[in-house]
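Thread: magnesium ion complex, take 2
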Amino acid sequence: MSDTTKTESTAEQMSFEAEVSQLMQLMIHSLYSNQEIFLRELISNGSDACDKLRFEALANADLYGGDSELKLQVSFDEEASTITVSDNGIGMNREDVVANIGTIAKSGTKQFLESLTGDQKTDSQLIGQFGVGFYSAFVVAEKVVLTTRKAGDAENSAVQWTSDGSGGYTLAEVEKPSRGTDVVLHLKDDCKEFANNWRLRSIIKKYSDHITFPIMMLEEVAPPAEDSEEPPATPQLEQINAASALWTRPKSQIKAEEYEEFYQQVCHDYEAPMAWTHNKVEGTQEYTSLLYIPSKAPFDLYDATNQRNGIKLFVQRVFIMDEAEKLMPRYLRFVRGLVDSNDLPLNVSREILQDSKVIDSIRRASVQKILGMLEKMAEKEPEKYTKFWSEFGQCLKEAPGEDFANKEQVAKLYRFDTTKSGGKAGENQVSLDEYIARMQLSQDKIYYITADSYNAASNSPHLEIFRDKDIEVLVMHDRVDEWMMNYLNEYDSKSFVSVAKGDLDLSGIGLTDDEQAAEKKAKEEKAADAEPLIKRIKAVLENETSDVRASSRLTSSPACVVLGEHEMALHMQQLMKQAGHEVPSSKPVLEVNPEHPILALLDNEQDEDQFASWSRLLLDQALLAEGGQLEDSAGFVKRMNEMFMALHQR
Ligand code: ADP
Ligand code: MG
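Output below.
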């Protein structure tokens, strides 16, 4: 909040954060064909405010001040062209208003704004995901007046926030007889049709039927007949929404559309969910869970600062808290929905949840429900599963480090590109079970390569021998893969082996016993022949490498670098360094291909200085191919140029 000037004794002029103005403009533009959602947003805020008060009142019932019937009311004035959305929820004091309305506290707002495309349909979906609810009022209103009083505060300490949505707002101290919030919308000329009884009711039914608090409107009374003596009837408040806790109804009586609507209204998503599972558990423990998988990943799912978890906790139908992170492991943070327990105390706090046996067992069972649902989807609806995997697969890859017990079960759900899937990244991915079914005769390991892109991996010299021997290799190019592989050591009793790390022994795979023996002999002979050359190279590269040896990996490249079995891949080391982390520097092993003509040339080089220079060049290009960075890139260029000159002289 930069400039604030007092305009009169109590009203204060404030300006919006730059992002708010920007967002508002975008929203007004992109929601043009979907204006009616303003009501859903304001109702959802009123409902959130009631939830918050109910929760706080568990510890301090005085906050109700005698009025514990939480509800919302929508009213309108056709002549004045206004709509009012009121709630008797928690309300806000001056500080709250300044912090919540007029600013955007969400992290990632900048990236979000940059991600908007200008295409109305996509943008309105993004805006829905982002959840910039309150400002959608300005899609239909030219002026918004929000009057609010916090539960527990005095009558004369209410705050009034007024804005025309362009640049800023005023704040004034006012009186408000009851706690909670009234939002009055002064409709734009072309939006006056919203101040209409039938219109408002149908919007409420459509978007807010599943809100758990009653949404009231005044009933419509017919005007008295002209000759009537009776005084006109006073209209009564009536409830518009169903406000039934959907999850408490028997599964067999709930239609798919109802599950979808419930999700959209309660989990604030524009799109229908991809799948859901609804379970009533009875016996030693009693609870109901209704868990959804969204169709799309939220924009900040992979933001490390985003600790959000989409599960709401209810106790005996009373909303207790959002984002109950204890209910789902982090790698399933994309799951939305709710758990309603009959066993927890109503005054349960986050601290109590931390080591609650009840919560632990609900969590274990819920994880099983989700994994089971995904397994079934993978089996019965493979196309849908492919979509799921592309949206949320990276999250699941966090499981091996987080959920030891379910490691193998989650790994069953993984899909990878491989050297044989062909085509583009993401096409024809295979499961580990499929990989194993396609393994070569006497192959007992699962081979993989990690790189920062599919192309970089596909062109790696490390894959040459695998191509030669027709052994399939998993191609991993998500950032999380390298990390995941620290925890995923085996699957179906077969260990994972990186093609770029450690001493590789592929002898025997796909061969009969006789062929194996012949291969071994040939290999030993070649190694003996190459020994003197390798010694020479080793002497030159003593400081840069930990070893130089004849390679069993290469067929068409002259050399490659190999890491220790437990070392971080070079492209990851690079990323870590860029992010300012200390990376323990380790020297790579240089493997050379003695059969390559370049090595023969090198062997013939009598000038020791030249020999040293060529050897360095060999190492440098191997490092580059591996995605590493050269310490002395100028030296590399110099040696390259010398080599060109040498070519010229010969
Ligand atoms: P969100 O609901 O996603 O937090 P909104 O833009 O809809 O975003 O609302 C911003 C914030 O303003 C809310 O988080 C809440 O703190 C506050 N707020 C909005 N409406 C109300 C209300 N009716 N009662 C109390 N607080 C409200
Ligand atoms: Mg909101």
